[in-house]
Amino acid sequence: xxxxxxxxxxxxxxxxxxxxxxxxxxxxxxxxxxxxxxxxxxxxxxxxxxxxxxxxxxxxxxxxxxxxxxxxxxxxxxxxxxxxxxxxxxxxxxxxxxxxxxxxxxxxxxxxxxxxxxxxxxxxxxxxxxxxxxxxxxxxxxxxxxxxxxxxxxxxxxxxxxxxxxxxxxxxxxxxxxxxxxxxxxxxxxxxxxxxxxxxxxxxxxxxxxxxxxxxxxxxxxxxxxxxxxxxxxxxxxxxxxxxxxxxxxxxxxxxxxxxxxxxxxxxxxxxxxxxxxxxxxxxxxxxxxxxxxxxxxxxxxxxxxxxxxxxxxxxxxxxxxxxxxxxxxxxxxxxxxxxxxxxxxxxxxxxxxxxxxxxxxxxxxxxxxxxxxxxxxxxxxxxxxxxxxxxxxxxxxxxxxxxxxxxxxxxxxxxxxxxxxxxxxxxxxxxxxxxxxxxxxxxxxxxx
Length: 449
Hints:
Helices cover 34% and strands 22% of the residues. The protein is of the alpha/beta class. The strands form 5 sheets. Strands 8-7-16-17-18-15-19 form a 7-stranded mixed β-sheet.
């Protein structure tokens, strides 16, 4: 008899999992609480603009991401960001500065102190840390110095996690960085040695390029959904509950009783597990619920005719130390095609984060006033009056992999070993980027025979 597998959640992780399960010939059914697939990914086209509600880009950080897009073929077409995406701006004082990428740029930049510039010469010779729960801030101070933390790592973390480097644990939040120190003893030396190591054709697919899809990220979502098949995706399941009985899993809602499943794969956020899986031990669920999420406001702003400073870069990030009202801004129409009318601009601005969660509770008028003030001040706008303005609030935008991560991962492992056929995925582990989600989805599917 064919094994029946249920996937909970039709975001990128869930769809990728279902895609590979179907490819293996496994009977899979996807259950989604909303009325559409894609989770936080949603492309919108309006008045000549194409913007994203949710993530705007991904990074080809794992081979699995490139491989999936290749497999989908003509159903979706990869769009690699233009060369301008290689430039990143950091705000300091009253102006933008380019984030340096080379030795001479690092010496000349006003972002870092002269003390730390000289101190960085000794970075390859410092001993690796011994605390697996060392915060990212602690690691950077120890190896690179305070100014590197404030004006390179802190804005970088705001851009990825909307988080606080004092609370994020490097081992879990940035495992590649952690492993550079642990394996090679140094960031600088490790990066050089790693770049010289031979790569397989599979490894070479992870180009680290910034990407979207032609037609927006919805093209990837639609291609996955079409490949899985409409009959295998059930939407509007707002009151799902999963029961474990005699080695099987029964999924039900108020109006229907679905057939039993041999295995269930969850890809939902940690805050939703308790309601979905009432049979899971409360003590273990609490360890997953202990993981905080950043609250973020995203404001998409479009101009038919851009009247600010030239924005030839990926975007600008604002260190928390600068005490501004926004976290950063992406210049999407600069490095992605057909995002705004010719001569215009599409920008995505972010507020809130772990250290300013109250921003998500501001009224629309208050949010617009803050964005207007900051964009006039920082981007040289002579007049406001955008042709597109869309506000999105996310109460559970980005999970924060902090010191509670070890207990959370142990709890997941314990529940999976206790309940045969249950797999807990999603952003509760395995990374937060699009490539991380695709990689996890493929790995989840591969565990099922």
